[in-house]
Amino acid sequence: MDKVRLGIIGIGNMGTNHSKSLIEGKVPELELAAISDRQESRRDWAKENLPESVVIFEEGKDLIESGVCDAVLIAVPHYQHPELSIMALSQGLHVLCEKPAGVYTKQVREMNEAAEKSDRVFAMMFNQRTNCIYRKMHELVTSGELGAIKRVNWIVTDWYRTQSYYDSGSWRATWDGEGGGVLLNQCPHNMDLIQWICGMPSKVQAFCHNGKWHDIEVEDDVTAYLEYPNGATGVFVTTTADAPGTNRFEITLEMGKLVCENDKLTLHKLAVNERTFCKTAKGGFDTPECTVTEVETDGENEQHVGVMKAFAGKILHGTPLIAEGVEGISGLTLSNAMHLSSWLNQAVELPFDEDLFLEELNKRRNSSRKKEGSGVVFDTEGSY
């Protein structure tokens, strides 16, 4: 096999973008073989815009069982991610799942168990892991050369969305359709990156404001406090309502500080470990010597295309994925903990009570409002 025949389940904002990348030849080892979408308007778009060889289905289940694909890319509303992934794996298909892995960890745990029993490739679409700056931060922090983490601050408020965006889909920004707001739609990338680079916190206290800035029932403004096993602390702030927004990721360690902002990574490197300096310096106002440099990276940032190239490479050649599918549960654990903390108005320790989380989520699903979506599909270029 020199090419992997891929089926895309869901031709909304992201599925459309992925299909265009494939037919433009951006991922040479993936061939678009089929798509499915429940909306007739999206199937009509596919008939008009995709090659005649692409088979069109209404249901993802039918695409999975058709035999025309070797692999699937799942880009449907979040609750369906685990269900369709499990179905595809059981049919012997490789799976690339859009973020988030699911809505609640109990559901995703079942998906991971199915993947671990399978011999198929299972990957997550964590495209931000391809970003050279985040890769460099991961390398510097996890290598230990900068010492232990002391503090983490990430203010990421450049996820601006209009009311029109939220009105575009009947499932969007509802507890029953989407399962959450900014934490579950825009921030799975940040949830994944913060744990990938800094590790998982042991305690979370979060304040999630529902429909603060938009006519929606889920959160569009979040401030969370994090505590780590080694005593480090962190603050995570996000919203879809700040214009202009900010994206500043700062990690303070024993040997200095990393600052990621404006597509640059800056290292404030101490000459000596701060903990040692604190205990040995003679002057009360002494500060350790510090040099500031912009960190060089390889400059590569292939985003979704990079994830798809790695997915094909793993299937055909056994080369590494950008993100293993089973890793999707980690970032979701973090966002679930934030939701649960806000719902209970108290700090939540990790691991949290997954049954309690589902009980609280279902309360909100049961009172979730039904709405009609406009059906508009937006160009996602530059939105990530």
Classify the beta-strand content into a percent band.
15-25%
Number of domains: 2
Helix content: 25-40%
Low-confidence stretches: none
Q: What's the name of the CATH homologous superfamily of the largest domain?
A: Dihydrodipicolinate Reductase, domain 2
Count up the helices: 12
Any idea what the shape is?
A: globular
Largest sheet: 9 strands, mixed
Number of strands: 15
What is the CATH architecture descriptor of the largest domain?
2-Layer Sandwich
Alpha-beta classification: alpha/beta
Distance between the termini: 33 Å
- CATH fold node name of the largest domain: Dihydrodipicolinate Reductase, domain 2
CATH class of the largest domain: Alpha Beta
Structure write-up:
The mean pLDDT is 96. It is globular and about 75 Å long. The chain folds into two domains: 4-126 and 302-324, 3-Layer(aba) Sandwich (Rossmann fold), CATH 3.40.50.720; 129-299 and 331-366, Dihydrodipicolinate Reductase, domain 2. It has a nine-stranded mixed β-sheet with strand order 14-13-12-11-7-10-9-8-15. Strands 3-2-1-4-5-6 form a six-stranded parallel β-sheet, with helices on both faces. The chain has helices at 13-23, 40-49, 60-65, 80-90, 105-117, 132-142, 163-167, 188-198, 274-280, 303-317, 328-344, 354-366; strands at residues 4-9, 30-36, 55-57, 71-74, 94-97, 122-124, 149-156, 203-210, 219-227, 233-239, 247-253, 256-261, 264-270, 290-294, 348-349. Helix 2 (40-49) links the parallel strand 2 (30-36) and strand 3. By secondary structure, it is α/β, with parallel strands linked by helices. The two termini are 33 Å apart. Helix 5 runs antiparallel to helix 11 and helix 6 runs parallel beside helix 8. It has twelve helices and 15 strands.
